[in-house]
From TrEMBL:
SUPFAM superfamilies: RmlC-like cupins (SSF51182). Residues 51-104 form the Cupin type-2 domain. Coiled coil: none annotated. CDD domains: cupin_bxe_c0505 (cd06980). It comes from Variovorax terrae. This is Cupin domain-containing protein.
Length: 140
């Protein structure tokens, strides 16, 4: 039998929540999908899209999280995962293992991705650089 006491049903339509600044990165906009509230903080799901051209990127960091995936919906982004450059394009899904050191350093103006993380209040922790970062692609 389903346990309906720990999570709630949630249905968020595009007009229900807006993209807002003030998330983890100031150069992105975030749209809450209602999952954190429905799961009482067990999981967060939000849409993330480019708001400004990449200059410094995210910096080297890791997350204190049990689970994290990124599903690229539009455009592309370039990450360093440890010492490996990875271009993530529309349709791609990336599972970021817990604690992986990474750096999002470049993205297209139309970049938009779905991010799902557990727990909802995951922490982002700066780490020492792993390797050199390629330059971002200038926006026209």
């Amino acid at each position: 039998m389903l346990d309906r006491t720990t999570t709630q049903f949630s249905h968020v339509k595009p007009g229900d929540t807006a993209y807002v600044a003030g998330g983890l990165r100031d150069f992105f906009l975030y749209r809450d999908l209602g999952v954190a509230e429905a799961t009482h903080g067990k999981v967060i799901a939000h849409l993330v899209k480019a708001n400004m051209a990449p200059e410094q990127g995210t910096g080297w960091h890791r997350h204190e999280a049990d689970f994290q995936i990124v599903i690229m919906l539009k455009g592309w982004a370039r990450f360093m995962y440890e010492d490996r450059e990875t271009r993530v394009e529309a349709g791609d899904c990336v599972h970021q293992r817990p604690g992986i050191r990474h750096y999002l350093f470049d993205y297209s103006p139309d970049m938009e991705y779905l991010e799902i993380v557990s727990p909802a209040d995951f922490k982002s922790i700066d780490v020492d650089p792993v390797c050199e970062i390629p330059p971002p692609t200038p926006w026209k």
